[in-house]
Amino acid sequence: MKVSDVAKPMQAILVSSRAEIKTKFSPEPEVKDNIFTLCWHMPVSFDPPLFAISAGKARYSSKLIKESKVFVVNFMDLKHEKEVVFCGTNSGEHIDKFKETGLEKEEAEKIDCVRIKQASGFLECKVVNEVDAGDHIVFIGEVLNMDLKKTKNRMFSEDDRFTTTK
Length: 166
Ligand SMILES: Cc1cc2nc3c(=O)[nH]c(=O)nc-3n(C[C@H](O)[C@H](O)[C@H](O)COP(=O)(O)O)c2cc1C
Prior knowledge:
Blueprint: E1 10-11, E2 13-21, E3 30-38, E4 41-45, E5 50-56, H1 60-68, E6 70-75, H2 81-89, H3 97-101, E7 105-107, E8 114-116, E9 121-133, E10 136-148, E11 155-158, E12 161-164
Antiparallel strand pairs: 1-11, 2-3, 2-6, 4-5, 5-10, 6-9, 7-8, 9-10, 11-12
Bound molecules: flavin mononucleotide (FMN).
């Protein structure tokens, strides 16, 4: 049994990030936009509005968020299951997940980061704290801008099975 089993099913979200970073192919830093799937997340404060995500230390996204100190939480409908699974099973270190999935970019308004156009809602977050949590880092983000277009049909995950609320 894993510690996360007690919390299933959990809402699967997509976290997008952007950082200027050196890659294997370019000696000069270049701007990278990335997306990864995340189930370990929660709101942690009303005032100020804070939202926490727990990201594996080995994730490319963790490297980008550590560098830029910003991220966007994108809420996805069940109809985007294929894209969510792809972003959760492939690293963005050597591929462009926007290109591969067809998810479209939208500029965030309050932070220098990318949002996902197809999302049903978003939280634009600026990192105010990072907690070392074993093999993960908990990034606590202050929510500087948010919108929830709709709250139905969100995507929940239990291992490789997905479900939704009505
Ligand atoms: C349904 C699902 C939920 C996931 N939840 C998390 C999570 O909460 N935290 C995390 O670090 N990785 C989670 N992952 C794994 C990452 O999304 C995966 O390792 C991804 O390829 C990392 O991409 P990156 O290297 O481009 O950052 C999840 C994967 C799936 C499929």
